[in-house]
């Protein structure tokens, strides 16, 4: 019995060791297989991105494939609706900016860390529904993940806060990926020519004013006009536009052109121009009532001019309040509208 027990013990130990060895071989093989799959996927993505200047066109199947876990790379995906039937103006405006940042992918040292994809609504309606997207464009950043079971985590780019410019988008991606993707815009010969012409014109005007325009320089009307123009520019939000680079306008959900962005944290370029013109008309009316109308000798004409300008001021101030109520719907007051 003693020898039989020893044999059984040796047999049991042998079986356990063989089982452990088999599990080790299987795990190693699976790990190698997973690593090979990821390596092949990365190589395939790099080949596609290289041919299309950093952009990978996606559909529903390709989207699920590139985001399948585990993956050792991050993915930036632009959800857009660029087809003409959707009339998505923001999509068309942001598309070249997105491609400009994606083109910087070719200049980073390790191109396997991040990829840029585009998913159009026509090619990936199911994905839009999966992420509950009711508007476009929308931009998501999917970080690398080693876990095959967790649901896909992502970070959403805020167009209202960061704007539609490539530089802002590139900074957003760099902050999340830890990479340095730079934006290199093509040289704008037209803008350069306009700057040269503007500089030459400024020098010529300065020379004319210095030699012959002493009276013009000392004119109080000139400096009053320059001061008023500067005031209108700055109180209308022009500097905010220069810093944030908002879109000029954006259509509403029903397709009508939109020129007033709701809320105090957003505005459109067209909105700035409308506000500046409104203030200019109000200022012109006040100046006319104070300086021009008192010089009219005919009492009837003077009275008519006063009525006209008071009507203009009332209407324009009502429009100004209307704009403010569009920005802040809870504002309770109104004048005519």
Automatic annotation (TrEMBL):
GO terms for biological process: protein N-linked glycosylation via asparagine. One of its GO terms (molecular function) is transferase activity. Keywords: Endoplasmic reticulum, Membrane, Signal, Transferase, Transmembrane, Transmembrane helix. Its main location: endoplasmic reticulum. It comes from the Eukaryota. It is a multi-pass membrane protein. GO terms for cellular component: oligosaccharyltransferase complex. The chain crosses the membrane at residues 189-209, 221-240, 274-292, 304-324. InterPro entries: OligosaccharylTrfase_OST3/OST6, Thioredoxin-like_sf. Belongs to the OST3/OST6 family. Subunit of the oligosaccharyl transferase (OST) complex that catalyzes the initial transfer of a defined glycan (Glc(3)Man(9)GlcNAc(2) in eukaryotes) from the lipid carrier dolichol-pyrophosphate to an asparagine residue within an Asn-X-Ser/Thr consensus motif in nascent polypeptide chains, the first step in protein N-glycosylation. N-glycosylation occurs cotranslationally and the complex associates with the Sec61 complex at the channel-forming translocon complex that mediates protein translocation across the endoplasmic reticulum (ER). All subunits are required for a maximal enzyme activity. This is Oligosaccharyl transferase subunit ost3/OST6. It comes from Mortierella hygrophila.
